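Take just one protein record:
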Amino acid sequence: MLAAIEVSTRISSVALIDLVTGEEVAEAALPPDWESSVTLIPALETLLKQRNVSPEDLAGVAVSVGPGSFTGIRVGLATAAGLCLPSNLLAFGVSTLDGLAENLRMGGLQGEALCLIDAQRGECFVGRYEVGRDDFTELEPPRILGCGNLASLLKERVWVVGPGALKHELEIRENLGTLGMFAFSGLHQPKAMSIARVAYREWAAGRRPVLDQLKPFYLRPPAVDEKP
């Protein structure tokens, strides 16, 4: 069994997926006003209990590593480390942008896509993907772009998804015009089950990452680390 954690944006969630069968066992979202640092573990424990799964049945943990909220990313990584250390579980770090691309895939929205997470300052963390029926491909490394500059990436119509797309919707629609197709509303929030699916495919392909390989993916240093 694999436990998954998504805590890189405002709404956190946890999920379970069976590593033997690929069955999506359970998922739960935490209320946005709850403190994720104190509720993630209880939420996961509740999910395990509801499905009659013991913590000893876990073989690995998957966690979104960003980009996104610096605090959320730290909380997610610390929680994953706490789960992995006692039994030396596998530790899958999955980009939050990859998780959004997976949202599109599961929603049946194929083709080129821009996955957007708010980066403040009128900018977004931007991932550009080709989404297929069975998987997705990253077309270029993620970057930070102003919301008025997204059209410079495109030559054809794309799906637009993510909390950054919702926050800056008006400016993005004006910038992309007919090139931008906004995804269904239920696909914009990063989800633990999407993180779990990506990790499951990596596991099925033979990847066995350990905790030492788990690193945050910031794109921009935390504000406290930036030089004036």
